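Why does this matter for the project? Reviewers at the last site visit asked to see concrete outputs rather than summary tables. In response, this paragraph embeds two records directly. Each consists of the residue sequence and, immediately after it, the corresponding structure tokens. Nothing has been edited or filtered.
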Amino acid sequence: MPKNASRAGRLADQIQRELAELISNELKDPRVQLVTITSVEVSADYHQAQVFVTTLMGDGAIDSALEGLQRASGFLRSRLADSLRTRTVPELHFVYDESVERGTRLSRLIEEAVGKPRDDT
């Protein structure tokens, strides 16, 4: 594994931990309640970070949660600057992570398929 790849991975992990704590403890925006950060991807030059999030508030809350997070991105980025030991702090871009929802939907379909008796007539 290249040195930079592992550094980007460590930085992404640290950003994920720090953001999760900041969102749960310091953001007062009601749109951002019950938001979970599933992963973070940092660009090769460390200037951009895609933050993948999911919410337990339902489908209707996704857009408002993303809007609230994007609005708070300047605050979150400045707070990250206090804890990250990097020359630059990546610009944060929040993206809804559909993989959790997709996994739940697939599990439900599998359970339905397995639970139904087969018709061998």
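We now turn to the second protein, recorded in exactly the same manner.
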Amino acid sequence: MLQVGKRAPDFDMPSTKDMKNLKENVRLADYKGKWLVVFFYPLDFTFVCPTEITAFDKRYDEFKKAGAEILAISTDSVYSHRAWIQTTEDKGGLGPIKFVLASDITKDVSRDFGVLMEDKGIALRGLFIIDPDGNLQYQVVHSLNIGRSVDETLRVLEALKTGGLCGADWKPGQKPLTV
């Protein structure tokens, strides 16, 4: 069972790392030594999903500065991912993005992370932060209708990086609690 503080599930999925040929998979091991924000979304070419992906993309440099990478995953194929990235925003696409989209076409990774809606064959909006050693440090799952907050994800990432006790509404730059 997936649990914070335990090893994150391993994965090996087709991805958009090589947009031209789509032949380069993405693996958890690719991110060893880095913080990783993994978020699952239901489907390409939908309504809430592009708002999240573009919001994370606009703040990508902040994640990089914090020593983190971003990986977005859905059960769509890499061909659908590529088409979505190559379609302009005004035509319902994403346009170019700075991070990788992975294809959980087998649904195994969504199942391993506990976000697969078996009856629909799509993932809930799960977001996970994995530490540089490959351990799960944060997880949150939203309804299909509600997008995630990039601000909150960055706040939690920075709080985790302090290694200390961070109270409610702690903000980056503040000192952790002392006991």
